[in-house]
Amino acid sequence: MHLQRIALLLIAAFVLSGCGYNAFQSKDEAVKAAWSEVINQYQRRADLVPNLVNTVKGYAEHEQSTLEAVTNARASVGKITLNADDLTDENKMKAFQQAQGELSSALSRLMAVSENYPNLKADGLFQNLQAQLEGTENRIAVARNRYITAIQDYNTFARSFPQNLTAMMFGYKAKANFTVDNEKAISTAPTVDFNKPAAQPAQPPAQPAH
Predict the structure, then answer these.
(1) What is the pTM for the complete model shown?
(2) Which DSSP state fits 196?
(3) What is the pLDDT of residues 19-62, one digit of tens each?
(4) Distance between CA 100 and CA 82 in Å, rounded?
(5) Which residues contact 196 (CB under 8 A, 6 or more apart)?
(6) Which letter does DSSP use for residue 85 in this model?
(7) Fewer C-beta neighbours within 10 Å, C or N terminus of the chain?
(8) DSSP string covering 42-53, please?
């Protein structure tokens, strides 16, 4: 009886392995690790915002609408949590993407505004924060790409036969990815040109010579 139980366990292990159960465990952990790094880098960026806003405010306080947009976008990001267990919910992912995209756009406008204030650009603290922000944006891009790759690998595996049968049996659902529209919104900064010449007043028509 004992030998039969061992044999059944061995057969079950072999069947599960052949249907991709063990691979699901590995790929699911890879997705969770990749998502954790995305969250860490987004949080790093959010942590920079208060000091960045306060530094800009010291030189450009009358840029109130831009400063408020960054502060409000940062607050919206803080209200949305998306952990690894929520990655199958596309609506939650879209809400997360929208909030992060709004913060990206607001920060782009803030950095564009800073170009109009030479004293601010020369401030050592601002330069340090700007460098940290640029580095963080690069790390966000790397983390997002790794997550996209992990998700594509996981979803392709889950939808292929016979792994799709294992997925249905054990509840492994396809996970949400970043959308193309979101990629465009984050990678496209607003265009602000402070060097555009002011409009010239219209000249009166020349009077005919008498």
Answers:
(1) 0.76
(2) P
(3) 678 888 899 999 999 999 999 999 999 999 999 999 999 998 88
(4) 12
(5) none
(6) G
(7) C
(8) HHHHHHHHHHHH
